[in-house]
UniProtKB/TrEMBL annotation, chain A:
It comes from the Bacteria. Residues 38-107, 122-177, 206-252 form the RNA polymerase sigma-70 region domain. Keywords: DNA-binding, Sigma factor, Transcription, Transcription regulation. It holds the Pfam family Sigma70_r2. This is RNA polymerase alternative sigma factor. InterPro entries: RNA_pol_sigma-70_dom (IPR014284), RNA_pol_sigma-B/F/G (IPR014322), RNA_pol_sigma70 (IPR000943), RNA_pol_sigma70_r2 (IPR007627), RNA_pol_sigma70_r3 (IPR007624), RNA_pol_sigma70_r4 (IPR007630), RNA_pol_sigma_r2 (IPR013325), RNA_pol_sigma_r3/r4-like (IPR013324). The keyword tRNA-binding does not apply. Gene3D superfamilies: 1.20.120.1810, Winged helix-like DNA-binding domain superfamily/Winged helix DNA-binding domain.
From TrEMBL, chain B:
It comes from Kibdelosporangium persicum. InterPro entries: HATPase_C_sf. It comes from the Bacteria. Gene3D superfamilies: Histidine kinase-like ATPase, C-terminal domain. This is Anti-sigma regulatory factor.
């Protein structure tokens, strides 16, 4: 990262804010103000990194958005007491976010930018409404929330079908690393008891990534709704839906191969 | 299993039923599940309902596609009712064999849907394997939901 030394100097005035932020209690309203200030102040860093990736076929604005999410994560996770400076922490975090975006996010068909944004705002509104309502919202509730017509919401939801990955959804939610959930559920062995082909199924379920397995077990053996699972794991309901569809497909294919 | 003498596939098409016929092959399943999702969404069922219906339809139809005689078609009929969506799907088979209701796939289907059943009917030249399922949800047209 040849840029680090150069950009570093421009942000030193922000450093004390991290200490101030760290010292505030969790519920202090001033935290939001400081956080905003830190994010806004470091925005040029995100923009700069995004530009370096801009030739790869994704629109520049999308990348700046992704980089900004990386920056926000970095601001939230940075621990000033560790003695490292923020930029040497933030730059890899932002770059990681962009790499993940390239790796994970590909729309299976070309979806216009407007629809991607529509899909993003619908996902975000869906998350909020789920929390308020305690259940998944309906398309018309989302339309009301966003001030959109129902047809626009349909369009945005359908656009989500063309988008077969994750990172945009992830961006709107918290970190999804949650190992304790899997432990809490216990072994899949007992959950799958009574299913006829469970000997061939078990190895397939064990091979699933932790999160996919957790979602599968919570939905089919814990009987939680997709929205409840989304909340537990910290991802959006639409993301749960996609992961679940993919997992079931994988299991079906795996069982077919067995035969 | 006794063959019902009438099924709504071949008789009593309800006004408002939506039917789709595709070749009974796995690669056509996305078309069926998109239709299911579109119907549920436009009926304003909540997003959990839409997502679960989609998975259930996928599961049911892939079971049928697996049982179908190659080169035949898969029929899916959807019916919107006051409190949910019903689907009847069927495929043609040369053998009089019921789908395995002890399988993982059936477990998935019955978790996602509120009711599911399967049967085999004799038809000229072979058998028709059917799955009927319904998924219930608070219908948004219901005043209790507040509507929009």
């Amino acid at each position: 990262m040849t840029t680090r030394a150069r950009t570093k100097n421009g942000y030193e005035h922000l450093a004390p804010l991290f200490h101030e932020l760290a010292a505030l209690p969790q519920d202090d309203p001033r935290r939001t103000v400081l956080r905003d200030e830190l994010v806004t102040g470091h925005l040029p860093v995100a923009e700069h990194i995004a530009r370096r990736f801009a030739h790869r076929g994704e629109s520049g604005e999308d990348l700046v958005q992704v980089a900004t999410v990386g920056l926000i994560n970095a601001v939230d996770r940075f621990d000033p007491t560790r003695g490292t400076d923020f930029l040497s922490f933030a730059v890899p975090t932002v770059m990681g976010e962009i790499r993940r975006y390239f790796r994970d996010s590909s729309w299976s068909v070309r979806v216009p930018r407007r629809l991607k944004e529509l899909h993003l705002s619908i996902t975000a509104a869906g998350n909020e409404l789920s929390q308020q309502l305690g259940r998944a919202p309906t398309p018309s509730e989302i339309a009301t929330r966003l001030g959109l017509s129902k047809d626009e919401v349909y369009e945005g939801l359908e656009a989500g079908n063309a988008y077969h990955s994750v990172s945009l959804d992830d961006m709107l939610t918290q970190d999804s690393d949650n190992t304790s959930l899997g432990e809490m559920l216990g072994e899949p062995d007992s959950a799958l008891e009574g299913v006829e082909n469970h000997e061939s199924l078990l190895p397939l379920v064990r091979e699933l990534p932790e999160r996919e397995r957790t979602i599968l077990l919570l939905r089919f053996f814990g009987n939680l709704t997709q929205t409840q699972i989304a909340e537990k794991i910290g991802i959006s309901q639409m993301h749960v839906s996609r992961l679940l569809a993919r997992t079931l497909q994988k299991l079906r294919d795996g069982l077919l191969e067995e035969q | 299993m006794t063959a019902a003498n009438k099924s709504f596939v071949d008789s009593s098409v309800d006004v408002g039923d939506i039917e789709l016929r595709v070749p009974a092959e796995a690669r056509y399943l996305p078309i069926i599940r998109s239709l299911a999702a579109t119907i549920a969404m436009r009926e304003d069922f909540d997003l959990d309902f839409v997502a679960d219906l989609k998975l259930a339809v996928d599961e049911a139809c892939s079971m049928l596609a697996g049982a179908a005689w190659p080169g035949t078609e898969l029929r899916c009929r959807f019916r919107v009712t006051d409190n949910g969506i019903g689907m009847q799907a069927s495929a043609l088979s040369t053998v009089d064999a019921l789908l395995d209701t002890a399988s993982f796939g059936w477990r998935v289907l019955t978790t996602l849907a509120d009711s599911a059943s399967t049967r085999v009917e004799q038809v000229p030249g072979g058998y028709r394997v059917l799955i009927e399922m319904t998924k219930r949800g608070p219908h948004p047209a219901d005043p209790r939901m507040g509507g929009a």
